[in-house]
Design brief:
The chain contains 15 helices and 19 strands. The chain is an alpha/beta fold and about 525 residues long. Helix 5 crosses helix 12. The protein is elongated.
Length: about 525
């Protein structure tokens, strides 16, 4: 019974090297009998053979051994100069055992005797399967190498991010301090510039670290900030022939998500759109809000009714036909010569991880539209719950700041002093303990978790042993909270991502002091 494995596969292209029409038909009859769908091109000289390799682009070559003015051996040699893997099967009446072995050594895939052609169909099937297996292995090896590179990048990014955050912290605090000089517009403008540069640098560090590690950290994403950063990423990637337009309905809209992953998704979609328009066109990115009902969702999707953010990427390119759309989200499927076939699959994964769904609308001659639907919920942050009427000014509360890096320590203490706190600066846990022994317990402690000689956790444990039970603000790397399991429970512990901004620090400080005082 014939093997029907290939009957569901696409039609194969067969390049037949044969000078006998009758023999050619007998060979093709074996493929017909086994149900293999094919297109064939018959050649019998070198010029037509070479032209067919370039124009017909065969999946397999079936060749006689000898023909007037041309030979199968020469055809094999020409093919291997161009392609190391394309299957080449000799189908000949004159191929002896020694000649067959020599042909295999020169790169032939198999050989079939015309007197016994029954093995031809299985040989064709096996040759094509082996080629696909080798391609799959290469793709897997390529992805493994890519994964190893990202692992190395993650290690490098993790090492660099801490130092970069330390460099950026003074910019954020100094920028906020300079902005307070409202009577000097030049200093205020300089402060805004310094702070914005520091914040942009921080976003770049976090994007690099998050992308390299593949980590997903939930955060509040403000739509305007997302697209401002995305616009920066796209600068230099949009050719002059492509007109890009962004229309953001509500820039102040915030939702829970991952800033870096959404940027990556938008980047993939927009770069795909640009590549689909080599002669130029229009690219539009727009946002809107919509309600999704139960009938919107596909059978394999989990219906989640309610309010959604819709992000649309629309291009005026050539569009895609139904055969491409059916395979669009399959791993390794790509219409680009150098593509990995993983970009759209990655986009779909990112949208799904946000609890959303993705839609595509396209057709030949009418461009392509991708719609990303992200669920929206009404979220209230801790900062929103603060009573802003209390203000951010201190009332001479004693604050102990323990930070190893001198520049950060100086700016933090200067900032808190300027807002009415009595601040003491300690550059190590040991110095902080000595100050407590001399001057008593503070009202609040601001502590860097990443100190080297006497770590933040050890310092905190020592403070508790000295009798401190007040509020603690712990400055930690984003996504890497310190291990506090061995410490006694602290009722008023607040962990803040580094680097901190003045406003967030002051709000957290006021909240911590109010909570500690109300509980005392």
């Amino acid at each position: 019974m014939p093997n029907r494995q290939l009957r569901t596969m696409p039609t194969i292209r067969v390049l037949q090297v044969e000078d006998s029409q009758l023999d050619a038909e007998l060979v093709l009859a074996e493929l017909d009998n086994d149900g293999i769908a094919y297109e064939v091109q018959l050649v019998d000289d070198e010029a037509r053979f070479v032209a067919a390799l370039d124009e017909f682009k065969p999946h397999i070559v079936l060749s006689d051994l000898s023909m007037p003015g041309f030979s199968g051996e020469h055809a094999l040699e020409l093919l291997r100069q161009r392609d190391e893997e394309l299957p080449f099967i000799f189908v000949s009446a004159t191929l002896g055992e020694e000649a067959a072995i020599a042909a295999l050594r020169k790169g032939a895939t198999d050989y079939i005797l015309k007197q016994n052609p029954a093995r031809l169909a299985s040989a064709v099937r096996r040759a094509l399967t082996e080629v696909e297996a080798r391609k799959a292995n290469r793709r897997a090896e390529g992805e493994l190498i890519r994964a190893q590179r990202f692992e190395s990048l993650a290690m490098l990014a993790g090492g660099l991010s801490h130092d970069l955050r330390n460099l950026l912290q003074p910019l954020l605090l100094a920028g906020d301090s300079l902005q307070d000089y409202q009577d000097d517009p030049r200093l205020a403008r300089l402060g805004k510039l310094v702070r914005d540069c520091g914040k942009r640098g921080l976003d770049m560090v976090q994007s690099m670290l998050s992308f390299a590690r593949g980590a997903r950290r939930a955060e509040q994403v403000r739509l305007g900030a997302l697209f401002s950063a995305f616009d920066l990423l796209m600068q230099g990637s949009v050719p002059r022939t492509v007109a890009m337009e962004m229309v953001i309905e509500d820039p102040e809209l915030s939702f829970e998500g991952n800033h870096t992953e959404l940027q990556q998704c938008l980047l993939n979609l927009c770069l795909n759109a640009i590549q689909a328009m080599p002669d130029g066109g229009n690219l539009r990115i727009e946002t809107s809000q919509t309600q999704l009902a139960a009938d919107f969702f596909m059978p394999e999707e989990q219906p989640r009714l309610g309010h959604y953010l819709r992000i649309s990427v629309i291009d005026s390119g050539p569009g895609m036909d139904q055969s491409v759309l059916e395979h669009l989200f399959e791993p390794f499927f790509t219409t680009k010569e150098a593509g990995t076939g993983l970009g759209l699959l990655s986009c779909k994964r990112i949208v799904s991880s946000h609890g959303g769904v993705m839609r595509v609308d396209s057709g030949p001659g009418r461009g392509t539209r991708f719609d990303l639907y992200i669920p929206l919920e009404e979220l209230v942050t801790d900062a929103d719950q603060l009573d802003e009427q209390d203000g951010l000014e201190g009332a001479a509360e004693r604050v102990l700041v323990v930070v190893e890096e001198a520049g950060q320590l100086s700016l933090l203490t200067d900032t808190l002093d300027a807002y009415g706190y009595q601040t003491h600066a300690s550059q190590s846990g040991t110095a902080a303990l000595q100050w407590i022994e001399a001057g008593g317990l503070p009202d609040l402690v601001v502590l860097d978790a990443d100190m080297n000689l006497f770590t933040g956790v050890r310092t905190l444990a020592a403070l508790i042993e000295q009798g401190y039970s007040g509020a603690v603000i712990l400055l930690a790397r984003p996504g890497e909270p310190p291990d506090l399991h061995e410490l006694p429970p602290l009722e008023h512990l607040y962990v803040m991502d580094k680097p901190v901004t003045t406003l967030v620090l002051l709000r957290t400080l006021r909240k911590a002091l109010r909570a500690a005082n109300s509980g005392s």
